[in-house]
Predict the 3D structure of the following.
Amino acid sequence: MSGDKPEERRRLVRAPTRGDAAGRGMGHQRLKTAEQRTLSSQQWLERQLNDPFVKAAKAKGYRSRAAFKLTEIDDRHHLIRGGARVIDLGCAPGGWLQVALERGAGAVVGVDLLPVDPVPGAQIVQGDFTEPGMGERLLAMLGGPPDLVMSDMAPNTSGHRQTDHLRIVGLIEMAADFAIGSLKPGGAFVAKAFQGGETAEVVKRLKASFDHVRHVKPKASRADSSELFLVATGFRGRD
């Protein structure tokens, strides 16, 4: 349930330029044909063609540009450690799973409503994280408490702004509750949120359980997007 479309999805120091392998010699590209496409679809496809992170993802074999969001967050906050146990909520199409394994995670489990092609080294469940018992199932597959819980979940939109907003906040709350209830002491949590979202209560709860809680907007998040990420590190453990 990631916000990136499936066609989209170490370390990136800066966005690739025209001279990089991902886009060498390529200027602004336009669609050759607009037949049977809506205006919004044409605009999205043209943006994809000219997005340096989309080009870089293809060059590196990542399944979406979202992989670069996690690499930048990890570069800053060192979430993925060698041998770490990691759970990825909303893992489709698998870019974050790839990054976690690439950076040395020892056990990785992901879940998503959508089918996800196998990622060597990761265990993937097609299912609804919000279903009763799913959290326990993921922990059993992982073989122990996670060092990192990450969530790129986003709900299916209804078109009703307030309803969609409440769904987004609800998913963030559920992911945070799962992290607080399952992480090892010293563990970390990262989740997609949105600017202007009513996440104050979630942030308050995270601050009560983690040493540091921050809002981060990676360079790979488009400038015109309200997307940002909550990053909580230094889990203090449960009472």
About this structure: The chain has one domain: 67-235. The domain at 67-235 is CATH 3.40.50.150 (Rossmann fold).
